Amino acid sequence: MQLKAKIVLLAVLPLLLSLLAIGVSVLDQQRTLARQTQTLVREAYMKSRRIELRNYVDLAVGNLQPLATSLPPAQRTPEAEAELKRRALHLLETLNYGHDGYFFVYDQQGTVLMHSRQPELIGRNLWNLTDTQGRYTIRLLLAEARAGGGYVDYLWRKPSSGQMAPKLGYVELLPPWGWMVGTGLYLDDIQATLTELDTEMNNSIRTTLGWLMALAAGGTVGISIIGLMLNLREHRQADAKLRLMARQVVRSQEEERAHLARELHDGTSQTLVAGKLLIESAVVELESRGQTPPGTLAQALKRLNDALHEVRHLSHSLRPTLLDTLGLPAALAHLASEFGQHAKLRIDAHTEGAEIELPDEVKTVLFRVAQEALTNVAKHAQATEVDLSLAFEPGHIELRINDNGRGFNVDAVSAHPTAGIGLRNMRERLAAIGGRLEVHADQRVGPMQPGFEDAVHGTLVMATVPRKALRSIPSPPSGHLT
């Protein structure tokens, strides 16, 4: 694993583990809090509903008490008493709250005197009524009422559903008449309210966990993006340093080439010229004396001329003076002329677009690419015609070398450890100045110049340098490579 990946992993893993621990802790606390909260809410809710039931019954009894004591003893007749009771029961019958909130009235013998939701029970004696557990419901209610009032849990039919449901009732006695007045709340309604509260609490906790997960994902993505940005920045810096080093290497090579070219031109070449002049002087002196010069002098003179020609050719190959004096187009034209004569090729060198002054490194790289490409044509292509063009396009500088040779398998040669050295060198030279190399073989790519229409097979080498890359290449001082 790479160091950068380890660093990112060491940064992300603790974050994920800590968030996982927080999530597990929150889930555990959620369950504990849910249980505690449910217990507290149930107790508080039940307490409030118990108080509410008692207040309802106290209110009802408080309204009935004045009626029960409104007749003076002298006016208490059975008819008057019955009328007061009828009015009292009618008043209670109209007091309802909620869907299933109502009052009921029983006498001391368990007879139903009033039941607003189940009028069919009025007049029936329910003293012996039992629930599913065998408990006497009305007897329990009457016992609590006689004890001064109290709460009773029992089962009763719910008016809104018609089903038996657990109910919490509160009852009191109305002393003057001995009635048991009560009301109650169905516990399934309370449970529904508690369930709704639990749902809201769980939703809130899930939302909190969702935010934690979002923060975890955001933190992971943020760290990944920062790591990627740092990685890209380091790559860009490394690429810039590599390009700078490559340019420095190329510049050093060119400086060494220029130095050798000068040494050959100023040293070796001059020595050979001096030797040639001495031999020619010897020949002239012998002839002036009427003597025939030996044949070895003529052979030596011929060998000196050949050596002088080779030294000059080598000097120009190492660093053509035209590249520094007249520029890249002239140097390419001279290169094409020399290669055409040497390799028996028809080479058409031309320039397109408005010529601009190029940095020395760019001129050198493009010249070396052309030199390498023409060398490959002469060695391998078996071509007869070559089109060499230098185009000054609006957005880039493009060098094209197109031949009509036999072509080759570009992918295979590029992947070969030794066969593609020339192509790799050209690519590396261009990459060092921000350019790129494209090679297309086995078929002609793009139009040929007039006179090359029959070149339907061959190789096209394109070297492209963007104009924006030219601005990032500093030009060395004048005469740096001369």
From TrEMBL:
Residues 42-139 form the Single Cache domain. The chain crosses the membrane at residues 209-232. Keywords: ATP-binding, Cell membrane, Kinase, Membrane, Nucleotide-binding, Phosphoprotein, Transferase, Transmembrane, Transmembrane helix, Two-component regulatory system. Residues 361-469 form the Histidine kinase/HSP90-like ATPase domain. The keyword Cell inner membrane does not apply. It is a multi-pass membrane protein. It comes from the Bacteria. It catalyses: ATP + protein L-histidine = ADP + protein N-phospho-L-histidine. One of its GO terms (molecular function) is ATP binding. It is found in: Cell membrane. The keyword Nucleotide-binding applies. It holds the Pfam family HATPase_c. Its EC number is 2.7.13.3. GO terms for cellular component: plasma membrane. This is histidine kinase. The lineage of its organism: Bacteria, Pseudomonadati, Pseudomonadota, Betaproteobacteria, Burkholderiales.
